[in-house]
């Protein structure tokens, strides 16, 4: 935490009023925090700088500041009256906060304004799932896998393997065919296991 000690401070000099606000807020951009300021620090320029970092602010505004809109600075106000000006994104934020007030009053579960904003965004933006890369298909003309007979073992008997696709479905079945293009040379029945196994890679 850094305490502002005046013009001789590191934050002093030109634009020091804005720096006093921006410096302690630097670790809180884009997190839903909103500083509250009196009219010594607050300005249209500072509010714009904060808005660029997705950070909103609240505060009174001095009428005599150069960037203050003329119609606002010259408005004749009675005690208790105020003038409001906002940009499009601020209008959205105001509507969102008003809806949050109603939610807090009538709905559950309770949540912070930041959590509420995130829930609204998730509800409005559809979930995007990454497309799965399709495995090789026996319907593809470029498909190079084909059944091969297992070699003969001792006694001129052909070796047999458990069918990988049958096993996956909980069935115990031996076969004398395999796919030599696949890792581990899986045993596969000719029909329909060979085709179904490769279509589900």
Automatic annotation (TrEMBL):
Q: Where is this region: Disordered?
A: 129-155
The protein's name = PiggyBac transposable element-derived protein 4
Where do the PiggyBac transposable element-derived protein 4 C-terminal zinc-finger domain residues begin and end? 158-198
Query: What organism is the protein native to?
Result: Acanthoscelides obtectus (Bean weevil)
Instruction: Spell out the InterPro entries in the cross-references.
Output: PGBD, PGBD4_Znf_C
Origin superkingdom: Eukaryota
Pfam family membership, one: zf-Tnp_2
The residues covered by the PiggyBac transposable element-derived protein domain are: 15-100
């Amino acid at each position: 935490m850094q305490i502002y000690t005046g013009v001789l401070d590191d934050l002093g000099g030109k634009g020091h009023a804005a720096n006093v606000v921006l410096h302690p807020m630097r670790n809180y951009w884009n997190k839903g925090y909103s500083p509250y300021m009196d009219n010594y620090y607050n300005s249209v320029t500072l509010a714009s700088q904060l808005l660029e970092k997705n950070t909103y602010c609240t505060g009174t505004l001095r009428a005599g500041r150069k960037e203050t809109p003329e119609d606002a600075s010259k408005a004749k106000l009675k005690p208790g009256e105020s003038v409001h000006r906002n940009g499009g994104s601020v209008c959205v934020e105001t509507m969102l906060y008003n809806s949050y007030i109603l939610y807090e009053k009538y709905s559950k579960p309770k949540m912070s304004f930041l959590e509420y904003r995130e829930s609204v965004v998730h509800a409005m933006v559809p979930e995007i799932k990454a497309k799965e890369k399709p495995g090789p298909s026996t319907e593809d003309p470029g498909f190079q896998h084909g059944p091969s007979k297992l070699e003969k073992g001792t006694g001129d008997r052909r070796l047999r393997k458990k069918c990988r696709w049958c096993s996956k479905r909980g069935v115990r079945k031996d076969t004398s065919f395999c796919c030599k293009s696949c890792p581990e040379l899986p045993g596969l029945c000719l029909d329909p296991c060979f085709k179904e196994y490769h279509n589900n890679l």
